[in-house]
Amino acid sequence: MIKLLIVDDEKIIRETLSKHILWESLGVRVIGTAQDGLEAYDIIMDEYPDIVITDIKMPGLSGLELLQRIKRLHPEVEFIVLSGYGEFEFAREAMQFGVRHYLLKPFKEALIIQTVKEVIEELSQKRISRYPQQSSPLKHLDSTMMLNVLNQGVAQDTSGKKTDFQSIYAPYQKFLDFENTPYELCYLYFVDESAMKRAVEFIHDFRRKHTPGLSFHILYVHQTLLFFFLSYQVEYSGLDACMEKISLPAQTISSQYKRIHYENLQKLLDDVILKVKRYEIIYYDNDGTLITICNYRSITKEAEHLTEILYQENILAAKKALDELLILLSQITDTVFFCQLASSVLMYSASRCLFFSALNATELLIKLRTLTSTRDMLQIIVPKLHEIFDKYHKSETKKGSISVRIDEYVQNNLSDCNLSLKWIAENHLYMNIDYVSKRFMKETGERFSDYLTRLRIQKAKELLLSEDMGSDRIMSVAERVGCGNNPKYFSQLFRKATGMTPSAYIKFISGGKNDDNRNIESKDKPGSL
Question: Looking at the 3D structure of the chain, how many domains does it have?
Answer without folding.
Answer: 3
